[in-house]
Design goal:
Order of helices and strands: HHEHHEHHHHEHEE
Helix content: 40-55%
Largest sheet: 5 strands, antiparallel
Shape: globular
Distance between the termini: 25 Å
CATH class of the largest domain: Alpha Beta
Structural class: alpha+beta
Radius of gyration: 21 Å
Number of strands: 5
Strand content: 5-15%
Length: about 240
């Protein structure tokens, strides 16, 4: 089988912690990679994410400080911050509903369209109502009870939905980093940051959640901390 370019990009991608200050990356290409990011799969296609592309020196310095001035942030040429927006679920559900209604009959049968609309207009509002902690708590109890006698979807609490939002956003972030690697641009996803201060800097609403901060630039040789290490494939691969 012929090797695809994505395989080379995946091999190139490393978490780079020191960037070359003399090498500037193209803002338009980074934006293009963010456009590739949002093509990622997301739970129920709700796309409950936003991406903040940081290019100004002042903003980078403020954000770097909130990331404890770790080298991957401090030396980055640009920063990209994926943000989880569970609070936007009513708007994103409606966007899907509007899209489904606009699909031509030749591309979606009336039966399929009716089923999809029922899912978005009836099922998902009940599920994402669980972002309210009290509703999510009682929903979890109800689903555990139902699960005694039949197959049941159980991830309905506010904590479950938070995990779902972060999983989808992380998939998009990985798309972004792979796309950057295809341009020989380097990245480093960081989880070490003061989320309260960072949300204030970005002027995010209270319910927004920062998934990670991604440093972007061109690597210095010493910016890659050693050879790549992965546990043996046999420890993580199971065929049943």
């Amino acid at each position: 089988m012929k090797e695809k370019i994505v395989s080379k990009a995946i091999q190139h991608r490393r978490s780079v912690r020191i960037y070359d200050s003399k090498k500037v990356i193209n803002t338009d290409i980074v934006k293009q990679c963010i456009q590739q990011a949002i093509l990622a799969a997301s739970s129920s296609n709700l796309q409950l994410w936003e991406f903040y592309h940081i290019t100004s020196k002042t903003m980078k310095e403020k954000i770097s400080e909130s990331c404890f001035n770790q080298p991957a942030a401090k030396t980055a040429n640009q920063l990209v911050i994926p943000v989880v927006r569970l609070d936007l679920w009513p708007k994103r559900i409606q966007s899907n509903v509007d899209f489904i209604k606009s699909v031509e009959p030749s591309k979606m049968s009336e039966k399929s369209k009716k089923g999809a609309l029922s899912y978005y207009e009836k099922v998902l509002p009940k599920l994402y109502g669980g972002t309210n902690k009290l509703r999510g708590f009682f929903g979890k109890i109800i689903m555990q009870y139902k699960g005694v006698s039949k197959i049941t979807y159980r991830e309905v609490s506010s904590t479950d939905l938070r995990v779902i939002g972060h999983k989808s956003t992380a998939l998009a972030a990985q798309n972004f980093m792979t796309s950057m690697a295809a341009f020989d641009y380097d990245t480093c996803p960081m989880e070490g940051f003061d989320s309260v201060r960072l949300k204030s800097i970005l002027e995010l609403p209270r319910k927004a959640q920062i998934s990670m901060v991604i440093g972007c630039g061109i690597r210095k040789e010493e910016g890659v901390y050693g050879d790549r290490f992965r546990v043996p494939f046999e420890e993580v691969y199971f065929q049943k």
